[in-house]
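Q: What does the assembly look like in three dimensions?
Context provided by user:
Components: two
Sequences:
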Amino acid sequence: MVNYIWAGMAIIGIVYAMFNGTMDKVNEALFESANEAVTLSIGLISVLVFWLGLMRVAEQAGLLKKLTNLFKPLVTRLFPEIPKDDPAMGYILSNFTANLFGLGNAATPMGIKAMEEMKRLSGSDKASRSMITFLVINTSSLTLIPTTVIAIRMQYDSIAPTEIVATTIMATLVTSTAAIIVDRLFYLRRVRKTK
Amino acid sequence: MSIVTTISTWIIPCIILMVLLIATWKKLPTYEIFVEGGKEGVKMAFSLLPFLLGMIVSIAILRGSGAMDAMINLISPLLATLGIPAEIVPLSVIRPISGTAALGMTTELIKTFGPDSFIGRLASTMQGSTDTTLYIITVYFGAVGIRKMGDALKVGLIADFIGIIASIVIVTIVFAS
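A: Here is the predicted structure of the complete assembly.
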């Protein structure tokens, strides 16, 4: 599916430009965005190195295991395929925790690590059930305090910059719950298909 | 507000402090473990590069050509009949696709309509309550080499749509008076 989306976006863009005389804009976008992508990836190195290093220390100190034990009842239900004491659980939880506190930078390395552990468990290049659940929860955003948005609101002289915190948390709760339910429904559909 | 700011500036240093204190107390070779783990990060960033570049360039072509704006104009009336305000439609379409573009649009909406207007509050809530689905899927699946993504994208986009509706309903109810 991602192949169709990826090729589709470029094809639609180029064909549209043919008929609307925006071909120069396409060229511009092409090289600017490629540059931007490289800057973004290189910029990720700093964050990835730091947090993966620190997470390794946390793991060896037994902190990830502690975190897992704390939330075990909830997470084992969300990820029934992952063995209870597997390191994957620790990384999934640290990713969720980092997201909750709005530490997007720290969340990404931990999320990638969690995906690696889940790939080790499934041993194939197909997305496993746990991976899909994990990603869907991530895409619905678990932020408790949307710091960037608050900053923008302050910049434009809001009377109450933080008044949207409550609505954001409520919306996040609805989205995440919906994501988990939709994920379950799709899983059940897959199971039925293979029978 | 000051409490929120204090928490967000203190939290990262405090996590680092806690990890290092406990690890040192357990007599672990902290620096060596850190370097060992950090090495992985370098590899990861480079393996991510092609995935990110491919996706970002394709999105840029779609936006740069003007096709994305045309598509948004096309579906706006349709979404407006569902009760989604026309001003918010571009943001709701962009949000799952491009994080930077969405942030730009949110800023623009807050600037134009004011942070304390209905549109301003709605844009703020939407920006905070969902994430860039396409980016997350590209990065996470790309980094570990998953080729068959299963239902991930479908489920993610359905959840995004539910999130937009939820934001509108919640903001309307909470700020009704």
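Follow-up: The longest helix of chain A spans residues 23-60.
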